[in-house]
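chain below, 308 aa
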Amino acid sequence: MKRYRVFYFLISLFVLPPVYGQIGDGFGAHWQRLKEIRETQRENKEAVVSETSLGAKDENMQPDVFAGRDMLVYVPSVLPEKGQRALLVVLHGGGGNANFMREHLKIDGVAEQNHFIVAYLNGSAASTIGGRQLKAWNAGSGCCGKPYTDNVDDVGYISNAVTYLQNKYGVSSERIFGAGHSNGAMMMQTMACQTNLFTKVATLAGTLMSGLSTCPAAHGHTIYNYHGADDQNVPIAGGFGTKGVTNINYTAQTEAKSRFENAGGHYFLTVLPGADHAIEHLNVASQQQDGMTIAERIAKILGLASMQ
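prediction:
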């Protein structure tokens, strides 16, 4: 227990001072939020289900590295011919990593059944400590952590990583799609706003944080965003989340939709009742709606799986 307290105290030293400066609620409140995050992580860990039980094959997971960052690539047993293959690029949330996202999104079995490749990319260190496991993306407008303060070019990194994967696996340039959760969802929305890499993305608990005043590449692009009605980390109405350790004022969903669509894109928001920020709870709410897991929903809405 003492070791955990020291760890979270160090996290507070490196991550929390901006929060303290904004809301002035003292160390006790920071400590309480960190304990809540730890409990959520423990709950998420207990919710992990074997990928193989969902139809994925362990031998089809291929670790890779691009530009110094690790990635995980799931290549299904059966693929279309080269040049016709589809790729889904998945981005983890802030403080997460590629393996965590793979374990909790549970989309490899869907990829196995529908013959598309899944690439889980890694951001860079979220803070000055714990960077080997705790990673984040520079999605703009303060989000998130060290990648933002260091002005990491994640738009450039993701673009180049996808080109590498496209060439390596024979992926069609017209069949490249994106998905992400939380900070990773915000990064995906920024990619849809600023680049032509992804014409369709499916995001979970995210919003548009691009630092640009408009979206130069949004014309003809589509964002499908799934948001828990009870999300207190990234509120649907925008502003500061009451859970988490950031001091960011998030963009309201109404503003994100208006901004993206004013630039010629399409922004579809689906609010999932009873769900908060966690992937597991979004998944439960998705299944309660019509029996589809959140992974199945993402694959179908992006055209990677049959709509039947």
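Residues 1-27 have pLDDT under 50 and may be disordered. The longest helix spans residues 26-46.
thats it, cya
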